[in-house]
Amino acid sequence: MKPVFKLGLCAVVVASLAACSSSESRRQASDDFEYLESAPLSEWQNLPDQQPEFSGAYTIPNRDFAGPTGRNIDIRPPQQILELIPGARYERDAKGVTVWMPREEQSERVWQTINTLIEENQIPVRTSSIDGVETDWLVWTLEDDDEVIESRYTVVPVSDRSRSGFRIDMIEWKRNGQAENVSVDMRDRYSAQMTNMITSRYDGDLREEARIRAAQLVKNIPISLGKDRSGLPVIIARAPYDVFWERLPAILGQLGMTVEDRNRSQGTLTVKYKAPDDEFWEEIGTKPLQLDRDNYNIQLGDLGNRTSINVTDSAGKPIAEEQLASLSPVLVAAVERLNLN
User: Fold this and answer.
1) Quick one: 250 and 208 in the same domain?
2) Greater pLDDT, 203 or 337
3) Rounded to the nearest 10 degrees, how much is the dihedral formed by the CA atoms of 261, 263, 266, 271?
4) Can you give the pLDDT at residue 136?
5) Are residues 201 and 97 in the same domain?
6) Do 210 and 227 sit in the same domain of this protein?
7) d(CA 180, CA 183)
8) pTM over cut 0.70
9) Count of the separate structural domains present in the chain
10) Measuring CA to CA, which residue among 159, 169, 161 is closest to residue 100?
11) Residues 244 and 324 in one domain
């Protein structure tokens, strides 16, 4: 009975703490604020005949600084921009966010994404033209906000020499239905939120298209062992990176490899290998993989209409050439086996 009683008491305490934790308390520091009562700076007084020596490293500029103090300071970490577009650059400033796309066709594609969000009314619009979009009120619901936050933006295309992309600026802000002067921190947080909304949809649409193409093209993925530019062995799959990336987990699953982690923008997969039984190898008609039961890292490289495949062990060392050579025909057999299912 005693352990049960203790567990019940802990549960009550946790529940009480959770109930007392509001979005306001999660945004505020809980320590003392005695620094707000500090005496103002005074002029340094030198002793008679003293030659003062000062370092400019700690000089405080002589001007007024505007900003929150004490409990008005939002202690939450900044809203991160999800870097879902490989090669894109994100520039944040006091007014908003600029996203530079790596290629012109990607810039055009992101505007297709924005237009799709507008058509689906996920981005309500007041005005729209070739020069950009002025949104209506977007309502944000975040875990750490009990308040109703609304904001409006302009989203415009930008270009600079050979670069192109889009720019997001917040133009109005409301809290619980009341218009307010937005702080720099809130402008930064919700400009990043708007950016993530667009880039997440862009990434999701590309993934879905790649999945469909992968399903259509999986029957025609020649795989062979070759050499890279430095003469080292590498497996080459004659399929675009996006297509092969979407299909590879299913192929690896046929071989007893469980994908534990993967990063599409970096082209990396972490897999755990457990060798299938002899019956499996007889069924697919290849020799067993010359791999130990271990974790492996698979690195894919984008070669245009082809994809390179490199494998390293759990220590980060490339597997031996004979091991890589044993993987190539097994991947081919796994693709063929998927085609029959």
Assistant:
1) no
2) 203
3) 20
4) 96
5) yes
6) no
7) 9
8) no
9) 2
10) 159
11) yes
Distances (CA, A) of 102 to 89, 264, 292: 8, 16, 40
Q: Are 168 and 229 members of one domain?
A: no
- For residue 334, is it within any domain? yes
Instruction: Tell me how far CA of residue 38 lies from CA of 34, 58, 75, 219, in angstroms.
Output: 7, 18, 21, 73
Distances in Å between the Cα of 321 and the Cα atoms of 88, 158, 235, 317 are 35, 48, 10, 12
Per the CB < 8 A criterion, the answer to whether 112 and 94 are in contact is no
pLDDT band of residue 30 (cuts 50, 70, 90) is low
Range of the domain at 322: 221-340
Residues 172 and 200 in one domain: yes
CB 173 within 8 A of CB 180: yes
Q: What is the CATH number of the domain that holds 262?
A: 3.30.310.170
Token pair for 107 = 């810039």
Which ranges of 40-160 does DSSP label H, i.e. alpha helix?
104-119
- Distance, CA of 133 to CA of 263 (rounded, Å): 32
Q: What are the start-end ranges of the H helices in 81-236?
A: 104-119, 184-217
Burial class (CB in 10 A: 0-12, 13-18, 19+), 98: buried
Asked whether the beta carbons of 187 and 95 are under 8 A apart, the reply is yes
Distance of alpha carbon 135 from alpha carbon 237, whole angstroms:
44
At residue 22, the pLDDT reads: 54
Tokens for 203? Answer: 């990434």
Please provide the size of the chain in residues.
Answer: 341
My answer on whether 208 and 252 are in the same domain is no
Helix, strand, coil shares of the chain as percentages rounded to 5? 40, 25, 35
Residue 168 placed within a domain: yes
